[in-house]
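Subject: for your reference before the review

Hello V.,

The reviewers asked for a structural picture of the protein, and I figured it would be easier to keep everything in one thread rather than splitting it across files. Below is the amino acid sequence we used in the manuscript, unchanged from the supplementary table.
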Amino acid sequence: MTESAKRSWDMPVFAALMVLALLAPFAIYPLFLMKVLCFALFACAFNLLIGYVGLLSFGHAMFFGFAAYISAYTVKVWGWPTELGILAGTGVAAALGVVAGLIAIRRQGIYFAMVTLALAQMVFFFCVQASFTGGEDGIQAIPRRPLLGFVDIRDDFVFYYVVLAIFALGFLIIYRTIHSPFGQVLKAIRENEPRAISLGYAVDRFKLMAFVLSAALAGLAGATKAIVFQLASLTDVTWQMSGEVVLMTLVGGLGTVFGPIVGAGVIIAMENYLTTIEQWLAGLLRAVHAPDWLIHAIEALRLGESVPIIQGTIFVVTVLLFRRGIVGELVAFIGRWQTRGSQAELSVRPAE
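And here is what came back from the structure prediction:
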């Protein structure tokens, strides 16, 4: 499938996803959906950097988690309106991205990844010791003040649509970026950086701009999540969170438009519903009078307590067998199907 053919499907698919998202809270718990949207935006921001610039960051949690702290503190302690708190978290994440980017983009490959990891660890230890973060307890009971003074976001159902709008805005910014002349330069840098330099592009400046944009959108996701769950904690700024967003992007499809969204949905659903799936499966086996040893074996798996093991297994399988990710493999399959159809049509066409 050509690039233009892929792009022609993007907006119809996005519109279909938005329709489904508008109807989703009528069938699925809104708080779960908001968590998926926040992490989907986080994964899309990360994918902008690794999928379209070729820069692997092992420290993106510093933007996500630190923005959550800033948003939480400004809203709870300083009494700022919710929208200003979210903007403050996004702005601080962008500023942190400038500082981290100026340091990290001087290196490439694994060295870039290690520098970002080191910077993220510095931010983590700062959050552990800083007084305003609340240490191990974090910032709790963050108030949900009316958005713009009149939208009551204390209702999860109402707040879901606000989070959906934030996600859609972030996604469209990323989509416009990757399909702009700026985005084409980023892809050129990813494919062949020395050639981009030889063509006269200020490669470091382009990489820094992409890094800052990615950091800002990751901060937007983190700041929104803090308001959603009324909590900012160390969990969001740990290196494990950086690893989790890498997993989401790889599972969904690295360098694809919708891959990070699918990956975030799969990983978050796994974390929240493995125990439910285990109970449902055991109940189904009992209903069909399956052998007791099989039921006990399912219950002994304790799927809800084995999330890291299962995530690790999925990561290994994805890397070894499905390197394009879920969406990447689907797009490749459709492309092969269309190619076979075109070849079959040409083979049966009568010779002139």
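For the response letter, the relevant points are probably these. The two ends are 28 Å apart (CA to CA). Strands lie at 139-140, 231-232.

Happy to draft the paragraph if you're swamped.

O.
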